Amino acid sequence: FGEAINLTPDNVEAYYNLGNALFMKGDFDEALAAYRSSLELRPTAMSLVAIGDVFFHRGEFDKAYIHHQQAADLAPDNYLCWSKLGQTRRQLYRHDEGTEDIYQLTARLARKSLVVNPRDTTAWLVLSLALAYQELTDEALLALRQSIEQASENVAIKYQTALVWNALGDSGRSLDALAEAVRAGFSPDVIASSPE
């Protein structure tokens, strides 16, 4: 990505992708700098989500919340923005009424996306997590099953599956999913820094 940035210094995607690579290595400070460069070139909801994710994994939930809220404001129909906002709010306020509202909205938006693209594994996974946080276990498990069936080899899906199992209160399956994610190449640094 460095070469792409050198050749095209206004390449938003190159900075964003560089940030993703650095984030997955656990280099949160450098990832933050790359995401901020991307954001300065062109504000996008995903850059704001990524910056919020860095703060989330550094335990700076107030800053994470601000960026995730800005992302949701910029892309109000994006289920992923709302999911991230809900996860951050949950760290700040646990499970208050506002957090519950965010998870309900996240589930509605994910379902809406699935009407358009029923093979959207991220939407299935986000739906599963939102339902799990609402303690709708059976529905969460159905959505999780859809996600796993469609992208069983996706490393990020393996990690997110662990978060769903954790939200459902099944620490054994959560730990199994984390171990599988690490074996498949997911960053142990990102796992270790997750407050979940």
Structure in words:
This protein has 196 residues and is mostly helical. Helices cover 79% and strands 0% of the residues. The chain has twelve helices and no strands. The protein has helices at 2-7, 12-24, 28-41, 45-57, 61-74, 79-93, 97-116, 121-133, 137-150, 155-167, 171-183, 188-193. Helix 2 (12-24) packs antiparallel against helix 3 (28-41) and helix 5 packs antiparallel against helix 6 (79-93). The chain is globular and about 50 Å long.
What is the structure about, briefly put?
The protein is an all-alpha fold. It has twelve helices and no strands.
Q: Topology of this protein?
A:
Blueprint: H1 2-7, H2 12-24, H3 28-41, H4 45-57, H5 61-74, H6 79-93, H7 97-116, H8 121-133, H9 137-150, H10 155-167, H11 171-183, H12 188-193
Helix pairs in contact: 2-3, 3-4, 4-5, 5-6, 6-7, 6-8, 7-8, 8-9, 8-10, 9-10, 10-11
In terms of DSSP E residues, the strand content is: under 5%
Following the backbone from N to C, one meets helices and strands in this order, namely HHHHHHHHHHHH
Question: What is the CA-atom radius of gyration, in angstroms?
Answer: 16 Å
What share of the residues lie within helices?
over 70%
Number of helices: 12
Name a few traits of the molecule:
single chain; 196 residues; mainly alpha; 12 helices; 79% helix; globular
